[in-house]
Amino acid sequence: MPVPVKKAAPSTDRRREGRIDVQAAIEGEDERSRSIASLRRARDRERRQQELQRLRSGAERVVRDVVVPEAITVQELANRMAARGGEVVKALFRMGVMATLTQSIDADTAELVVQEFGHRVKRVSESDVEIGLEGAEDTDTDLAARPPVVTIMGHVDHGKTSLLDALRKTDVVAHEAGGITQHIGAYQITVPDGSKVTFIDTPGHEAFTAMRARGAGVTDMVVLVVAADDGVMPQTVEAIRHAKAAGVPLIVAVNKIDKPGVKPERVKQELLQHEIVVESLGGDTQEIEVSATQRINLDKLLEAISLQAEVLDLKANPNRAAEGTVIESKLDRGRGPVATVLVQKGTLKQGDIVVAGAEWGRVRAMLDDKGRQLKDAPPSLPVEILGLSGVPSAGDNFIAVENEARAREVSEFRQRRARDKAAAAAGAGRGNLTDMLARIQAGEQKEVAVVVKADVQGSAEAIGVTLGKLGNDEVKVRVLHSAVGQITESDIQLAKASDAVIVAFNVRATSQARDLAAKEGVDIRYYSIIYEVADDIEKLYKGKLAPVQREKFLGYAQILQVFEVKKIGKVAGCRVTEGVVKRGAGVRLLRDGVVIHQGDLSTLKRFKDDVREVGNGLECGMSFANYDDIRVGDQIECYEVETVAAA
């Protein structure tokens, strides 16, 4: 009798609950996949649990307004939420985004992360980082008197630096190559009545037009220095134009009155042609007759400046974040990036975080024009600051900001914008450069390409202006690249690729760059005076003027017979009647004294051998490149073209 099989009782093992086999998974996939709503509920549950834990630990949850630009790094986003960077990376990982702390994420992703952390999102466009960078307008009650900023302008060698020298009782000229001011200098002096005056000394050479324009842009008044012996010169007129464009008052200093036989009245008459009417002729422009070398009437000049400053009623708020202008900048080998800035509003303090153009940094040290360390710089004081991340451009605004994050954000935005502009310009010019080189090789266009490296921004800019004026319809002078600092290997590579010459103004090449230049045959020219740059490049471009093509007669040959040769075509059996004929030379086919074809000689044979040339009286066979219409009795004229350099 079969033993009845007992049915197994239902298992109480719950470990297999929820497990499914492959078939069930395939069949019930849609039912089991989690919806976005369920994911959100799970996240909300996690968030509530985290809040509960915070409440139990006594920590109060802080909801922040997080500003999210169009692109932001993960670390910066974590900083703005006051969260750990690792937590943000984990949150991104859960969302399927693999990113490190230094990588940038877009605004949409950043917004999801901010919501995940329970904060409020404030979306802004990328350019909004500059909104509110400059402080609010000052009220009259906040303003205090400030010293005037005076720019000294005038023609080259009219005594501007000597005049400032006499006022400062120091010798600036002795340190300038060739006695010419190469850079903008800014100085503050205390006048006998105890008040202060800030002077900006701009170079007078015409190449520094842009620098003078910038000097007029930050100044309250202009002292126009005119030599009594020379009178009004071209750069004097330019200085007048800059002062008028800036809308600043003018004081005329007629210099060199100690020279015998000078007539200051002539200067005043010449100024009338440019609508400058001095007080002695019934106008409203103050004029002072001075001598910088003999120190004559310097006190009267300072009185005139003080009087003009009283009329202008110059004021600024010293109790606010500093704002101003970068007057000059350079890369110092020992100190790093150094910028000379003129404080125009507020007070700049050591330790302030500043944004200067596309660069930012903490002011590690401030020095005045005498090299003394300062703790703070009030309005109208020019100072050298150290601690920037890079060299800003002369003329850039600088602003003290509240923290490093803001400074970095503004700096990164400006650098990105500059890179985009440079990329767009390079993209636009890439095809043109190839075309240009092709045109040069074809003789259709000549160009002298120049790479400029200088010790300071102003000099680089000035050389660019000078070189821009050179050239004519036939030859162009083009500045490919202009920058501050020593010559590097990348400069040599650029010059090599573009067949350019490197102009080094008060800078030298690194040893690696020097070796590369020697290897690649790149010409580096060193200068310390701007006139010499213009003279040398002018000689260079004149050397590249399209040379004169001069024709040199070689000989005549008479066609005696015409043969048909396979693969070559018609070959003329000739006798040389005068001079010589050469293979590869230019030929003309004359029929009855008229030129019917001009081209090149492709074949020149004597018997069955190819020869380079055939002399007078000998017979030979000739064929023309791409031309067959030759007849017995035709005459062949052979010539060479000589290239003679343009005078």
Automatic annotation (TrEMBL):
It comes from Neoroseomonas soli. Residues 1-43 are annotated as: Disordered. This is Translation initiation factor IF-2. Signal peptide: none annotated. It is found in: Cytoplasm. Residues 145-315 form the Tr-type G domain. GTP binds at residues 154-161, 201-205, 255-258. Keywords: Cytoplasm, GTP-binding, Initiation factor, Nucleotide-binding, Protein biosynthesis. The keyword Cytoplasm applies. NCBIfam families: IF-2, small_GTP. GO terms for molecular function: GTP binding; GTPase activity; translation initiation factor activity. Belongs to the TRAFAC class translation factor GTPase superfamily. Classic translation factor GTPase family. IF-2 subfamily. GO terms for cellular component: cytosol. CDD domains: IF2_eIF5B, IF2_mtIF2_II, mtIF2_IVc. Gene3D superfamilies: P-loop containing nucleotide triphosphate hydrolases, Translation factors, Translation initiation factor IF- 2, domain 3. PANTHER family: TR-TYPE G DOMAIN-CONTAINING PROTEIN (PTHR43381:SF5), TRANSLATION INITIATION FACTOR IF-2-RELATED (PTHR43381). The gene is infB. One of the essential components for the initiation of protein synthesis. Protects formylmethionyl-tRNA from spontaneous hydrolysis and promotes its binding to the 30S ribosomal subunits. Also involved in the hydrolysis of GTP during the formation of the 70S ribosomal complex.
